Amino acid sequence: MIHTPPVIRLLSALLVFLAIITPTMAQITPERLYYGVGQRVIVNIEVPEGFFGEITVRVYDPIAQEWTHEAPAASGRVDLTSLLPYLWETKPQTVSYAQLELDGTPTGAPLVLQPLVTPNRAKLVDATTMALSEDPRGAVVFEDKRLPALQGQGKSESGLRQVTFSGLRVYVDQEVVMKTSAGDIVFRMRPDAAPNTAYNFLHLSDGGFYTNIIFHRIVAALPNGNPFVIQVGDLSGTGSGGPGYMIDLEDSSLPHDFGVLSMARDSDPDTNGSQVFVALSREGTAFLDGRYTAFAEAVQGAQVIREIAATPVGAEDRPMDPPMLLSCTTRDAPPIQDRLPALSTLEQSPAEQQPDPNEPDR
Protein backbone atom coordinates (compact mmCIF):
# COMPACT_ATOMS: atom_id res chain seq x y z
CA MET A 1 0.00 0.00 0.00
CA ILE A 2 1.23 3.47 -0.91
CA HIS A 3 0.95 5.99 1.95
CA THR A 4 0.31 9.64 1.07
CA PRO A 5 2.43 12.00 3.18
CA PRO A 6 0.37 14.27 5.50
CA VAL A 7 1.57 17.40 3.74
CA ILE A 8 0.26 16.11 0.42
CA ARG A 9 -3.09 15.26 1.99
CA LEU A 10 -3.24 18.75 3.48
CA LEU A 11 -2.47 20.38 0.14
CA SER A 12 -5.07 18.23 -1.59
CA ALA A 13 -7.70 19.23 0.95
CA LEU A 14 -6.77 22.88 0.51
CA LEU A 15 -7.12 22.63 -3.26
CA VAL A 16 -10.55 21.04 -2.87
CA PHE A 17 -11.56 23.85 -0.49
CA LEU A 18 -10.35 26.51 -2.91
CA ALA A 19 -12.24 24.82 -5.73
CA ILE A 20 -15.40 24.97 -3.64
CA ILE A 21 -15.15 28.71 -2.93
CA THR A 22 -15.33 29.62 -6.59
CA PRO A 23 -16.35 33.08 -7.75
CA THR A 24 -19.63 31.65 -9.01
CA MET A 25 -20.82 31.66 -5.40
CA ALA A 26 -20.62 35.46 -5.33
CA GLN A 27 -23.43 37.82 -6.28
CA ILE A 28 -24.51 41.46 -6.09
CA THR A 29 -28.22 41.86 -5.27
CA PRO A 30 -30.40 44.97 -4.77
CA GLU A 31 -32.46 45.31 -1.60
CA ARG A 32 -35.47 46.48 -3.59
CA LEU A 33 -36.56 46.98 -7.19
CA TYR A 34 -37.12 50.74 -7.40
CA TYR A 35 -35.06 53.69 -6.18
CA GLY A 36 -36.15 57.32 -6.51
CA VAL A 37 -33.65 59.91 -7.71
CA GLY A 38 -31.33 60.95 -4.89
CA GLN A 39 -32.10 57.90 -2.74
CA ARG A 40 -29.46 55.46 -1.54
CA VAL A 41 -29.30 52.42 -3.83
CA ILE A 42 -28.57 49.70 -1.31
CA VAL A 43 -27.20 46.41 -2.61
CA ASN A 44 -25.82 43.32 -0.91
CA ILE A 45 -22.47 41.95 -2.06
CA GLU A 46 -21.87 38.30 -1.24
CA VAL A 47 -18.46 36.70 -1.72
CA PRO A 48 -17.27 33.19 -0.88
CA GLU A 49 -16.24 32.60 2.71
CA GLY A 50 -12.48 32.80 2.86
CA PHE A 51 -12.12 35.18 -0.08
CA PHE A 52 -9.71 38.02 0.79
CA GLY A 53 -8.98 39.39 -2.67
CA GLU A 54 -10.01 42.58 -4.42
CA ILE A 55 -13.74 43.30 -4.76
CA THR A 56 -14.75 45.72 -7.52
CA VAL A 57 -18.01 46.90 -9.06
CA ARG A 58 -17.71 47.86 -12.70
CA VAL A 59 -20.42 49.45 -14.83
CA TYR A 60 -20.55 48.12 -18.39
CA ASP A 61 -21.96 49.56 -21.57
CA PRO A 62 -24.24 46.73 -22.80
CA ILE A 63 -23.46 47.33 -26.47
CA ALA A 64 -19.69 47.72 -26.37
CA GLN A 65 -19.45 45.36 -23.36
CA GLU A 66 -16.68 47.61 -22.05
CA TRP A 67 -16.67 49.12 -18.59
CA THR A 68 -17.23 52.85 -18.20
CA HIS A 69 -17.05 53.30 -14.41
CA GLU A 70 -15.55 51.29 -11.57
CA ALA A 71 -15.22 51.48 -7.81
CA PRO A 72 -13.63 49.32 -5.10
CA ALA A 73 -16.21 47.66 -2.86
CA ALA A 74 -16.54 45.41 0.17
CA SER A 75 -18.75 42.49 1.04
CA GLY A 76 -21.99 43.15 2.85
CA ARG A 77 -24.50 45.98 2.58
CA VAL A 78 -23.27 48.71 0.23
CA ASP A 79 -24.66 52.01 -1.10
CA LEU A 80 -24.13 51.78 -4.85
CA THR A 81 -24.60 55.53 -5.34
CA SER A 82 -21.77 56.23 -2.89
CA LEU A 83 -19.53 53.97 -4.96
CA LEU A 84 -20.84 55.38 -8.25
CA PRO A 85 -22.07 58.94 -7.62
CA TYR A 86 -22.48 59.57 -11.35
CA LEU A 87 -25.76 57.62 -11.19
CA TRP A 88 -27.51 60.63 -9.68
CA GLU A 89 -25.14 63.34 -10.89
CA THR A 90 -25.52 62.66 -14.62
CA LYS A 91 -29.03 61.13 -14.61
CA PRO A 92 -28.26 58.52 -17.28
CA GLN A 93 -30.88 57.90 -19.95
CA THR A 94 -29.88 54.39 -21.06
CA VAL A 95 -29.55 50.97 -19.41
CA SER A 96 -26.20 49.84 -18.06
CA TYR A 97 -24.96 46.79 -16.13
CA ALA A 98 -23.25 46.75 -12.73
CA GLN A 99 -20.94 43.73 -12.63
CA LEU A 100 -19.33 42.34 -9.49
CA GLU A 101 -15.68 41.38 -10.06
CA LEU A 102 -13.42 39.38 -7.75
CA ASP A 103 -9.71 39.90 -8.41
CA GLY A 104 -10.66 41.27 -11.82
CA THR A 105 -12.87 38.34 -12.79
CA PRO A 106 -16.54 39.12 -13.59
CA THR A 107 -18.55 37.07 -11.12
CA GLY A 108 -22.26 36.31 -10.87
CA ALA A 109 -25.08 37.90 -12.83
CA PRO A 110 -24.78 41.66 -13.31
CA LEU A 111 -27.36 44.14 -12.09
CA VAL A 112 -29.55 45.84 -14.68
CA LEU A 113 -29.58 49.59 -13.99
CA GLN A 114 -32.64 50.88 -15.84
CA PRO A 115 -33.29 54.64 -15.74
CA LEU A 116 -36.92 55.54 -15.08
CA VAL A 117 -37.51 58.16 -17.76
CA THR A 118 -40.47 59.59 -19.65
CA PRO A 119 -41.28 57.08 -22.40
CA ASN A 120 -40.74 57.95 -26.04
CA ARG A 121 -44.31 57.40 -27.29
CA ALA A 122 -45.17 56.20 -30.78
CA LYS A 123 -48.07 57.40 -32.92
CA LEU A 124 -49.73 56.37 -36.16
CA VAL A 125 -49.33 59.35 -38.45
CA ASP A 126 -49.51 60.53 -42.02
CA ALA A 127 -45.91 60.17 -43.14
CA THR A 128 -45.98 63.47 -45.05
CA THR A 129 -47.76 65.82 -42.64
CA MET A 130 -46.98 63.97 -39.38
CA ALA A 131 -50.64 64.51 -38.45
CA LEU A 132 -52.20 61.79 -36.30
CA SER A 133 -53.91 59.11 -38.35
CA GLU A 134 -56.41 56.31 -37.71
CA ASP A 135 -55.35 54.50 -40.86
CA PRO A 136 -53.70 51.21 -39.77
CA ARG A 137 -51.40 51.60 -42.78
CA GLY A 138 -50.10 54.88 -41.38
CA ALA A 139 -46.48 55.36 -40.43
CA VAL A 140 -45.38 54.48 -36.90
CA VAL A 141 -43.33 57.46 -35.73
CA PHE A 142 -41.86 58.05 -32.28
CA GLU A 143 -42.14 61.40 -30.55
CA ASP A 144 -38.43 62.19 -30.76
CA LYS A 145 -38.73 62.03 -34.56
CA ARG A 146 -42.22 63.53 -34.91
CA LEU A 147 -41.64 66.71 -32.88
CA PRO A 148 -38.66 67.96 -34.94
CA ALA A 149 -40.65 67.29 -38.12
CA LEU A 150 -43.62 69.27 -36.77
CA GLN A 151 -41.29 72.08 -35.72
CA GLY A 152 -39.83 72.16 -39.22
CA GLN A 153 -43.36 72.60 -40.57
CA GLY A 154 -44.06 75.42 -38.11
CA LYS A 155 -46.61 73.30 -36.25
CA SER A 156 -44.68 72.96 -32.98
CA GLU A 157 -42.71 75.50 -30.96
CA SER A 158 -40.21 72.90 -29.77
CA GLY A 159 -38.62 69.97 -31.50
CA LEU A 160 -37.50 68.41 -28.24
CA ARG A 161 -39.61 66.13 -26.11
CA GLN A 162 -39.65 66.69 -22.36
CA VAL A 163 -37.91 63.91 -20.43
CA THR A 164 -38.11 63.49 -16.66
CA PHE A 165 -35.61 61.26 -14.86
CA SER A 166 -37.32 59.72 -11.80
CA GLY A 167 -34.82 57.13 -10.58
CA LEU A 168 -33.76 53.57 -11.29
CA ARG A 169 -35.20 50.10 -11.61
CA VAL A 170 -32.48 47.72 -10.37
CA TYR A 171 -32.61 43.94 -10.67
CA VAL A 172 -30.40 40.91 -11.27
CA ASP A 173 -30.08 40.27 -15.00
CA GLN A 174 -32.06 37.23 -16.14
CA GLU A 175 -32.20 34.73 -18.97
CA VAL A 176 -35.46 33.05 -19.98
CA VAL A 177 -35.70 29.34 -20.75
CA MET A 178 -38.63 28.64 -23.05
CA LYS A 179 -39.45 24.95 -22.66
CA THR A 180 -41.39 23.70 -25.68
CA SER A 181 -42.64 20.34 -26.91
CA ALA A 182 -39.73 20.41 -29.37
CA GLY A 183 -37.05 21.26 -26.80
CA ASP A 184 -35.64 24.28 -25.00
CA ILE A 185 -34.85 27.76 -26.31
CA VAL A 186 -32.71 30.05 -24.13
CA PHE A 187 -33.15 33.79 -24.55
CA ARG A 188 -30.86 36.54 -23.40
CA MET A 189 -32.94 39.53 -22.39
CA ARG A 190 -32.05 42.87 -23.95
CA PRO A 191 -33.25 45.55 -21.52
CA ASP A 192 -30.76 47.91 -23.13
CA ALA A 193 -32.83 47.71 -26.34
CA ALA A 194 -36.36 47.78 -24.87
CA PRO A 195 -36.29 47.97 -21.05
CA ASN A 196 -40.00 48.07 -20.25
CA THR A 197 -40.89 45.35 -22.74
CA ALA A 198 -38.11 43.09 -21.46
CA TYR A 199 -39.26 43.58 -17.88
CA ASN A 200 -42.88 42.90 -18.82
CA PHE A 201 -41.87 39.56 -20.34
CA LEU A 202 -39.90 38.65 -17.20
CA HIS A 203 -42.94 39.55 -15.09
CA LEU A 204 -45.24 37.31 -17.14
CA SER A 205 -42.70 34.47 -17.19
CA ASP A 206 -42.17 34.59 -13.43
CA GLY A 207 -45.93 34.61 -12.92
CA GLY A 208 -46.41 31.40 -14.92
CA PHE A 209 -48.31 33.09 -17.74
CA TYR A 210 -46.58 31.07 -20.46
CA THR A 211 -47.67 27.64 -19.21
CA ASN A 212 -49.11 24.96 -21.50
CA ILE A 213 -50.17 27.18 -24.39
CA ILE A 214 -49.91 26.59 -28.11
CA PHE A 215 -47.86 28.21 -30.83
CA HIS A 216 -51.01 29.48 -32.53
CA ARG A 217 -49.46 31.00 -35.66
CA ILE A 218 -46.58 29.73 -37.77
CA VAL A 219 -45.41 31.45 -40.95
CA ALA A 220 -42.42 29.42 -42.06
CA ALA A 221 -41.93 31.62 -45.12
CA LEU A 222 -43.40 34.68 -46.81
CA PRO A 223 -44.63 34.44 -50.43
CA ASN A 224 -41.15 35.46 -51.57
CA GLY A 225 -39.65 32.50 -49.69
CA ASN A 226 -38.01 34.40 -46.85
CA PRO A 227 -38.47 32.74 -43.43
CA PHE A 228 -40.80 34.80 -41.22
CA VAL A 229 -42.03 34.04 -37.65
CA ILE A 230 -43.44 31.61 -35.11
CA GLN A 231 -45.94 33.17 -32.70
CA VAL A 232 -47.10 32.30 -29.17
CA GLY A 233 -48.35 33.95 -25.98
CA ASP A 234 -52.15 33.79 -26.11
CA LEU A 235 -53.80 31.84 -23.29
CA SER A 236 -56.97 31.50 -25.36
CA GLY A 237 -55.09 30.07 -28.33
CA THR A 238 -57.24 32.15 -30.68
CA GLY A 239 -54.69 34.81 -31.56
CA SER A 240 -56.81 37.52 -29.95
CA GLY A 241 -56.04 37.00 -26.26
CA GLY A 242 -53.62 38.67 -23.89
CA PRO A 243 -52.73 39.37 -20.25
CA GLY A 244 -55.60 41.79 -19.57
CA TYR A 245 -53.50 44.91 -20.07
CA MET A 246 -51.43 46.57 -22.78
CA ILE A 247 -48.03 48.24 -22.83
CA ASP A 248 -46.62 50.90 -25.13
CA LEU A 249 -44.51 50.23 -28.19
CA GLU A 250 -40.84 50.88 -27.44
CA ASP A 251 -38.30 52.15 -29.95
CA SER A 252 -36.06 49.09 -29.80
CA SER A 253 -32.46 49.22 -30.97
CA LEU A 254 -32.38 45.43 -31.50
CA PRO A 255 -32.79 44.48 -35.18
CA HIS A 256 -35.10 41.60 -36.05
CA ASP A 257 -33.10 38.54 -37.07
CA PHE A 258 -33.07 34.78 -36.61
CA GLY A 259 -33.91 33.93 -32.98
CA VAL A 260 -34.87 37.47 -31.98
CA LEU A 261 -37.94 37.65 -29.71
CA SER A 262 -40.36 40.50 -30.40
CA MET A 263 -43.86 41.68 -29.44
CA ALA A 264 -46.92 41.02 -31.59
CA ARG A 265 -49.63 43.70 -31.58
CA ASP A 266 -52.70 45.14 -33.30
CA SER A 267 -52.54 48.07 -35.71
CA ASP A 268 -52.49 50.46 -32.75
CA PRO A 269 -48.81 50.72 -31.74
CA ASP A 270 -49.63 50.56 -28.03
CA THR A 271 -51.41 47.19 -27.97
CA ASN A 272 -48.46 45.06 -26.87
CA GLY A 273 -49.24 42.56 -24.13
CA SER A 274 -48.17 38.92 -23.96
CA GLN A 275 -48.12 37.67 -27.54
CA VAL A 276 -44.60 37.33 -28.90
CA PHE A 277 -42.98 36.01 -32.03
CA VAL A 278 -39.58 34.53 -32.78
CA ALA A 279 -38.08 35.85 -36.01
CA LEU A 280 -36.86 33.22 -38.47
CA SER A 281 -34.56 35.36 -40.63
CA ARG A 282 -33.26 38.85 -41.14
CA GLU A 283 -34.44 38.81 -44.75
CA GLY A 284 -38.03 38.11 -43.72
CA THR A 285 -38.29 40.45 -40.74
CA ALA A 286 -36.05 43.46 -41.37
CA PHE A 287 -39.08 45.55 -42.31
CA LEU A 288 -40.44 45.14 -38.76
CA ASP A 289 -37.60 47.19 -37.25
CA GLY A 290 -38.92 50.33 -35.57
CA ARG A 291 -42.51 49.12 -35.88
CA TYR A 292 -42.43 46.12 -33.52
CA THR A 293 -40.50 45.89 -30.27
CA ALA A 294 -37.66 43.35 -30.26
CA PHE A 295 -36.48 42.72 -26.69
CA ALA A 296 -34.54 39.43 -26.44
CA GLU A 297 -32.38 37.13 -28.54
CA ALA A 298 -31.97 33.38 -28.52
CA VAL A 299 -28.55 32.03 -27.54
CA GLN A 300 -29.47 28.33 -27.59
CA GLY A 301 -32.11 26.29 -29.37
CA ALA A 302 -31.68 27.01 -33.09
CA GLN A 303 -32.82 23.54 -34.09
CA VAL A 304 -35.86 23.80 -31.81
CA ILE A 305 -36.89 27.04 -33.52
CA ARG A 306 -36.49 25.43 -36.95
CA GLU A 307 -38.45 22.34 -35.91
CA ILE A 308 -41.38 24.45 -34.70
CA ALA A 309 -41.25 26.51 -37.89
CA ALA A 310 -41.51 23.30 -39.95
CA THR A 311 -44.88 22.39 -38.40
CA PRO A 312 -47.59 21.86 -41.07
CA VAL A 313 -50.23 24.61 -41.04
CA GLY A 314 -53.75 25.07 -42.35
CA ALA A 315 -55.83 28.15 -43.01
CA GLU A 316 -54.66 31.49 -41.55
CA ASP A 317 -51.27 30.00 -40.64
CA ARG A 318 -52.83 27.87 -37.88
CA PRO A 319 -50.71 24.78 -37.09
CA MET A 320 -52.60 21.55 -37.65
CA ASP A 321 -50.93 19.91 -34.64
CA PRO A 322 -49.77 22.92 -32.61
CA PRO A 323 -46.41 22.76 -30.84
CA MET A 324 -46.69 23.58 -27.14
CA LEU A 325 -45.00 26.18 -25.00
CA LEU A 326 -44.83 24.24 -21.74
CA SER A 327 -43.24 26.93 -19.58
CA CYS A 328 -41.08 30.02 -19.48
CA THR A 329 -38.74 30.18 -16.49
CA THR A 330 -36.14 32.74 -15.53
CA ARG A 331 -32.64 32.17 -14.22
CA ASP A 332 -29.70 34.40 -13.38
CA ALA A 333 -27.75 35.43 -16.47
CA PRO A 334 -24.03 34.63 -16.70
CA PRO A 335 -21.39 37.29 -16.05
CA ILE A 336 -20.79 39.80 -18.81
CA GLN A 337 -17.69 38.06 -20.17
CA ASP A 338 -19.25 34.57 -20.22
CA ARG A 339 -22.22 35.31 -22.43
CA LEU A 340 -22.96 33.11 -25.41
CA PRO A 341 -23.26 34.76 -28.82
CA ALA A 342 -26.74 35.38 -30.17
CA LEU A 343 -27.91 32.76 -32.65
CA SER A 344 -28.38 35.56 -35.19
CA THR A 345 -24.62 36.13 -35.26
CA LEU A 346 -24.12 32.51 -36.30
CA GLU A 347 -26.42 32.88 -39.32
CA GLN A 348 -25.46 34.21 -42.74
CA SER A 349 -25.72 37.97 -43.15
CA PRO A 350 -29.21 38.64 -44.54
CA ALA A 351 -30.44 41.10 -47.13
CA GLU A 352 -32.97 43.83 -46.45
CA GLN A 353 -36.57 43.36 -47.53
CA GLN A 354 -39.37 45.76 -48.42
CA PRO A 355 -42.44 45.88 -46.14
CA ASP A 356 -44.89 43.02 -46.56
CA PRO A 357 -48.54 43.15 -45.40
CA ASN A 358 -48.22 39.73 -43.72
CA GLU A 359 -47.11 41.14 -40.34
CA PRO A 360 -47.21 39.52 -36.86
CA ASP A 361 -50.57 40.86 -35.72
CA ARG A 362 -53.09 40.05 -33.05
Give keywords:
single chain; 362 residues; alpha+beta; Immunoglobulin-like; Cyclophilin; 3 domains; 9-stranded antiparallel sheet; 7-stranded antiparallel sheet
Structural summary, described in words:
With 362 residues, the chain is an alpha+beta fold. It folds into 3 domains: 23-115, Macroglobulin (MG2) domain (Immunoglobulin-like, Sandwich); 119-162, no CATH class; 174-346, Cyclophilin (Beta Barrel). It has helices spanning 6-20, 80-83, 86-89, 143-152, 195-206, 282-285, 302-309; strands at 27-30, 34-36, 42-46, 55-60, 67-72, 76-79, 96-102, 105-106, 111-117, 122-125, 139-142, 165-172, 174-180, 183-189, 213-214, 217-219, 229-232, 260-263, 276-279, 294-300, 324-332. The strands form 4 sheets. It has a 9-stranded antiparallel beta sheet. It is globular. Residues 10-23 and 348-358 have low confidence and may be disordered.
Find the structural class using helix and strand composition.
alpha+beta
Just give the CATH class of the largest domain.
Answer: Mainly Beta
Strands, total number? 21
Large-scale geometry:
globular
CATH second-level architecture of the largest domain? Beta Barrel
Order of helices and strands: HEEEEEEHHEEEEEHEEEHEEEEEHEHE
Low-confidence stretches: 10-23, 348-358
Rg, Cα atoms, Å: 23 Å
Helicity level, as a percent range?
Answer: 10-25%
CATH superfamily of the largest domain: Cyclophilin-like
What is the count of structural domains?
Answer: 3
Share in β-strands: 25-35%
